[in-house]
């Protein structure tokens, strides 16, 4: 089966990798952009990284912010012109609460840009869902509760919200189209005993994949590990059983549940991925990644409030080097391993290249 999740995709874009260092004059367009269209959300998850006080992520988020319709259209026009390959919508808030998502999806459906969205699934219905089903590459629904009661407790929703999301997922697959529908199961100390049964339930909706991830509960790797250590073996055992019994050509189980320490420590001083996969926030600020979004103190690349995205991106390359991961990114970093691979690749002594 071809892998959707390879960490090595970036190396299919060698000219982009070669353009990343400060000494290289040229700035190339980002390959992939995360857009946070709105910070408004219709759920209230206890662990939401954008809302809890003890995580640096989201510390400066303004909940009522959203991207005006005209600005969103301008951003997409710029992305088309720049040759951006892919756009993913994510939170801050819930992308399908964004009042201009239908127009946005229609515009992208008529563009060469591949697009996708993270969602809680509550509003994944109607015309906008049909456009995603028929034209997007993937949609991934974040979940945590394993039935109506637990889901309502996790998210502060009505008591049948879980069943409604499952129905939205079945309806989504019934639209036809090639969009891959996935679920991200966020594992914590309350739901870890339900991993296997939950995967089985999700497979029954017709979803194409499930991703298992650990809930991030602290800025420090050691504290996250201490939280997950008591449940680690049980989660791994259930994931292994599910892979053996439930995975097949139509349903992929992607187990990224692991102890988190390696996502925190960084000994490098500039961030390659900030030029590869930046974030456009609902506040029209540009952030280097999803782990530094709405952190104005040490996660801000700049603003496109007063200028077009394409102008901002190509001017003054030094803006990508203001953030020093060794100093500013002691937090969880989803791109840590990919950054390390790129820096290793770029550090090779050309005189010795032949000695492979
Ligand atoms: S090192 Fe990681 S956390 Fe820091 S800016 Fe880069 S991608 Fe974000």
Task: Describe this protein's structure.
The chain is of the alpha/beta class and 356 residues long. The protein has a single domain (28-352), classed as TIM Barrel, CATH 3.20.20.70. The chain contains eleven helices and ten strands. The protein has helices spanning 14-19, 69-82, 101-109, 126-135, 148-155, 161-174, 195-204, 221-246, 309-314, 325-328, 336-346, and strands at residues 32-35, 86-89, 114-119, 138-143, 180-187, 209-214, 252-255, 279-280, 285-287, 302-303. Strands 7-6-5-4-3-2-1-8-9-10 form a ten-stranded mixed β-sheet, covered by helices on one side. Helix 2 runs parallel beside helix 3 and helix 3 packs parallel to helix 4 (126-135). The mean pLDDT is 94. The site of iron/sulfur cluster has 15 residues, from helix 11. Iron/sulfur cluster binds next to helix 11.
What is the helix tally?
11
Shape: globular
Could you state the CATH homologous superfamily? Aldolase class I
At the first level of CATH, the class is Alpha Beta
Largest sheet geometry: 10 strands, mixed
Could you report the average pLDDT, rounded to the nearest whole number? 94
Bound molecules: iron/sulfur cluster
| Assigned CATH architecture | Alpha-Beta Barrel
CATH fold annotation: TIM Barrel
Terminal-residue CA separation: 28 Å
The helix/strand series, from N terminus to C terminus, equals HEHEHEHEHHEHEHEEEEHHH
Compute the number of strand runs.
10
- Sheet with the most strands: spatial strand order: 7-6-5-4-3-2-1-8-9-10
Q: Helix coverage percent of residues?
A: 25-40%
Structural class: alpha/beta
Taken together, the total number of domains comes to 1
- Our Rg estimate from Cα atoms comes to 20 Å
Low-confidence runs of at least 5 consecutive residues: none
How much of the residues is beta strand, in percent? Answer: 5-15%
């Amino acid at each position: 089966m071809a892998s959707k999740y390879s960490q090595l995709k970036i190396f299919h874009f060698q000219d982009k990798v070669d353009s990343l260092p400060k000494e290289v004059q040229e700035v190339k367009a980002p390959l992939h952009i995360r857009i946070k269209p709105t910070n408004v959300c219709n759920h209230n998850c206890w662990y939401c990284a954008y809302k809890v006080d003890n995580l640096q992520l989201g510390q400066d988020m303004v909940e009522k912010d959203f991207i005006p319709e005209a600005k969103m259209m301008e951003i997409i026009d710029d992305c088309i012109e720049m040759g951006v390959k892919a756009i993913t919508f994510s939170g801050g808030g819930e992308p399908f609460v964004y009042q201009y998502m239908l127009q946005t999806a229609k515009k992208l459906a008529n563009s060469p840009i591949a697009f996708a969205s993270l969602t809680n699934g509550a509003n994944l219905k109607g015309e906008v869902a049909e456009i995603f089903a028929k034209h997007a590459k993937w949609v991934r629904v974040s979940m945590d509760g394993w039935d109506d009661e637990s889901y309502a407790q996790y998210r502060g929703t009505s008591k049948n919200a879980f069943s409604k999301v499952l129905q939205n997922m079945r309806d989504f697959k019934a639209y036809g189209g090639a969009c891959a529908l996935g679920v991200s199961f966020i594992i914590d100390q309350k739901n870890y005993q339900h991993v296997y049964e939950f995967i089985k339930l999700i497979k029954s909706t017709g979803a194409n994949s499930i991703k298992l991830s650990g809930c991030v509960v602290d800025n420090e790797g050691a504290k996250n590990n201490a939280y997950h250590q008591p449940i680690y073996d049980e989660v791994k055992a259930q994931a292994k059983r599910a892979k053996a019994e439930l995975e097949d050509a139509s349903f992929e189980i992607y187990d990224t549940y692991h102890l988190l320490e390696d996502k925190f420590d960084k000994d490098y001083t500039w961030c390659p991925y900030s030029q590869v996969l930046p974030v456009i926030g609902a506040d029209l600020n540009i952030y280097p990644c999803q782990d530094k979004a709405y952190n104005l103190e040490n996660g801000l690349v700049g603003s496109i409030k007063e200028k077009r995205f394409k102008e901002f991106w190509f001017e003054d390359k030094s803006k990508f080097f203001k953030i020093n991961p060794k100093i500013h990114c002691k937090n969880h970093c989803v791109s840590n391993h990919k950054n390390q691979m790129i820096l290793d690749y770029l550090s090779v002594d050309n005189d010795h290249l032949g000695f492979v």
